[in-house]
Design goal:
The structure holds 2 protein chains of 2 kinds. Chain A is an alpha/beta fold. Chain A has 10 helices and 12 strands. By secondary structure, chain B is α/β, with parallel strands linked by helices. Chain B has 9 helices and 20 strands. In chain B, strands 2-1-5-8-10-12-14-16-18-20 form a 10-stranded mixed β-sheet, covered by helices on one side. In chain B, strands 3, 4, 6, 7, 9, 11, 13, 15, 17 and 19 form a 10-stranded mixed β-sheet that branches. The longest helix of chain B is centred in the last third of the chain and has 17 residues.
């Protein structure tokens, strides 16, 4: 489904990703862990098409298509979804209107006719229930005045509505208490299926108690330096990142 | 002397005296004497140059470099107006074509006991004393060449008089159409809106152009708001790429009255709006909202004044603009708080999005406060579209152009929602969404 090969990217002339290689098959959940500043969020941003980052090398093939030359909206229409670490507040645009525009723009991209108001509302209500999202938030301006938990829940709600093939969760657990974390994780789990994949970017292991990954990768200094199964996450939780850093420095 | 060597000012002054010479007895009326004085003032002031502080960023040289036919007839029919429609709503709709009232196209629905609506000419014929009570009373001391010019040539426009205690349910929509299909045309509408005690009315002025020759509209509206009265006043400008518009609206408010205004400039080559409000009563409330969307080489200039003369009143102002291409915008907001106007609250804000490096916005708040117990604030911002918001929307599959349109519409939404004549607001929502999506 996703094949990242020797991906390099920089911002303002500083190289952050220094050759990332990653294979994700349909249905798999991969966790990307690593210390602060290792390039985790950069990887998520580059995959979603954030334009501040300059891709300096490598390829990213998603569902058979090279995506690095695609605009962010084309990647979204192809089925990539980024749940933001810091969701943006947009005054004057309601969540419901925003999502309706998004759904219909993606349908247009796929050559499908737009959903009518009744179909759209029915679908949205079901998805809101799925992530325990209060209906009243839908009518409010997007994320404006939302609490941290509401913002993150809104990300998962949008994901449920857009039904992406590949979801990238960028530190979705940051700033959430345990109840909010559970609700967000349940939303993510309910969307798991044999043809959907996810990349879960996180600093801590605790999210992985709820969203159990098939593989865990450790990103350090712009490279994946260690890969394993969920046991690797427990090891990191127990021992921290220093032993990994030491291993890398010894080799380098 | 050939036409080319006669400048606009000379032509206007010559025309005035030529008309006066055939007026017979009416030339000695008090009404005409006001016009005569105004002509002399215009002659003395001349058209403003950019050396005049009030016109520093707005150069009228282009406007005054050609002649206009101020007496152009028009063969306009209902069919010609099809494209210029505003969604229907039961309303008093008056048409002025090249400045002249057209009774055939107009529709009046409100009862005569509630509201007197006449063309200025007709009103003057019926009751010259009443009209003269109001005419030029507010703008006489403006010291503005265009206002003086309008007064000198005031001939047609609307006269609205609401008796005490009447609430007029149906809005009054004034459609000013410049028919510039065959020649350069000029018009100088003069409007008087006199609202009695505890009376309420909604009035909109809507300006459109037919054809692509030049049009020059020089309009003046005087609004008298009595004690406890409420007036909502909107101005919608959707004119051609060759339309020049200079407009002055002056308002005088008495105790406990409320005045709401919305000024929306959608299109036009050169637009200058003066909105001057005198809060001459206690516990008055004045609200001013504005929106402008210049593109190409369009020029939009809004000058506003909130003149607090008595204690305990409030003024509140919010103007917003989106500028593209090589367009220019000007905002000048004056707030005066006179020595007697203690406990005044006055707020002003002007926010702009400038989408091109070639577009410019000049903003100048000007506060002159002579009382010590007041709350005043002002702020202006000029920025670009929020890139983070744009990426957020695009990451959900919304195209860049659609995301831009949504963000810009959202930026305008708080002003649009202040337009409380439904048909006008719906019309604006449609035109604005279309305009924002077009690029």
């Amino acid at each position: 489904m996703l094949s990242i090969n020797e991906l390099r990217a920089s911002i303002e002339g500083k190289e952050i990703l220094k050759g990332i290689n990653l294979e994700i098959k349909p249905g798999e959940v991969h966790a990307i862990m690593g210390p602060n500043g290792s390039g985790k969020s950069t990887l998520a941003s580059v995959l979603a098409g954030r334009e501040e980052y300059e891709v300096t090398g490598g390829t990213v093939v998603f569902d058979g298509k090279e995506i690095l030359d695609m605009a962010p909206e084309e990647r979204a229409a192809e089925g990539i979804f980024l749940a933001f670490q810091y969701p943006v507040e947009i005054p004057g645009v309601t969540t419901i209107n925003f999502l309706k525009t998004a759904v219909n723009e993606i349908r247009k991209y796929k050559g499908e006719s737009p959903l009518d108001a009744a179909q759209f509302l029915k679908m949205v209500r079901e998805k809101a229930k799925l992530v325990s999202m209060n209906d009243s938030l839908l009518k409010r301006a997007l994320n404006e005045g939302f609490s941290g938990g509401e913002k993150k829940r809104n990300e998962i709600f949008q994901m449920a509505v857009l039904e992406p093939k590949l979801a990238i969760l960028d530190e979705t657990d940051s700033g959430l208490d345990i109840d909010a974390l559970r609700i967000v994780a349940e939303g993510v789990n309910s969307l798991r299926s044999p043809d959907r994949s996810a990349i879960v970017v996180t600093h801590y292991q605790r999210l992985l108690d709820y969203i159990v990954p098939d593989y865990v990768h450790v990103l350090y200094k712009g490279r994946i330096v260690k890969s394993g199964t969920k046991e690797l996450a427990f090891e990191l939780e127990e021992k921290g990142y220093d032993w990994i850093k030491a291993e890398v420095e010894a080799v380098g | 002397m050939s036409n080319e060597t006669i400048d606009l000012k000379t032509r206007l002054v010559t025309d005035f005296y030529a008309r006066e010479s055939v007026m017979n007895g009416e030339a000695s009326s008090a009404f005409h004497q006001k016009k005569r004085a105004a002509l002399a003032e215009f002659d003395q002031l001349g058209f403003p140059t950019t050396r005049n502080e009030e016109w520093k960023y707005s150069n009228v040289k282009d406007l005054t470099s050609v002649l206009y036919n101020f007496n152009a007839g028009s063969s306009i029919t209902t069919a010609d107006l099809e494209d210029l429609r505003i969604p229907s709503q039961e309303a008093n709709i008056l048409y002025f074509i090249n400045g002249h009232y057209n009774a055939d196209l107009s529709v009046l629905v409100s009862a005569a006991s509630q509201i007197i609506i006449d063309s200025l000419q007709e009103a003057y014929k019926k009751d010259p004393v009443l009209v003269n009570t109001y005419f030029n009373e507010l703008v006489e001391d403006e010291k503005d060449a265009f206002t003086a010019l309008n007064t000198a040539f005031a001939h047609d426009g609307v006269f609205i008089h609401i008796p005490d205690n009447q609430t007029v349910e149906h809005p009054v929509i004034l459609r000013f159409i410049s028919d510039a299909r065959i020649q350069n045309v000029g018009s100088q509408p003069r409007n008087i809106i006199a609202v009695g005690r505890n009376a309420h009315v909604k009035v909109a002025e809507a300006y459109r152009t037919l054809g692509n020759e030049r049009s020059f509209t020089n309009t003046v509206t005087e609004i008298f708001v009595s004690e406890d009265a409420g007036v909502e006043y909107y101005k919608v400008q959707n004119e051609s790429e060759n339309a020049y518009h200079i407009g002055t609206t002056k308002v005088k408010m008495l105790d406990r009255s409320q005045f709401y205004s919305g000024t929306v400039t959608l299109n036009g080559r050169f637009t200058r709006n003066n909105l001057n409000i005198i809060l001459d009563g206690e516990r008055c409330e004045a609200h001013m909202y504005g929106l402008y969307f210049p593109d190409g080489t369009q020029h939009v200039d809004n000058h506003t004044v909130a003149d607090h003369r008595k204690p305990n009143s409030e003024s509140n102002e919010l103007y917003k603009g989106i500028l593209r291409d090589r367009s220019k915008g000007v905002f000048n907001g004056k707030i005066f708080v006179r020595p007697d106007a203690q406990k005044t609250n006055a707020f002003q804000s002007c926010k702009n999005i400038v989408l091109s490096t070639d577009a410019t916005m000049n903003t100048k708040p000007q506060l002159e406060i002579f009382a010590d117990d007041v709350k005043c604030s002002h702020g202006t911002t000029t920025g670009q579209i929020d890139e983070e918001a744009l990426f957020y929307m695009r990451s959900r599959g919304i195209s860049q152009s659609e995301a831009m349109a949504l963000l810009m519409f959202a930026f305008c939404a708080d002003v649009i929602s202040q337009i409380r004549i439904d048909s006008i607001r719906e019309y604006l929502e449609g035109v604005i969404a279309e305009k924002l999506a077009s690029k």
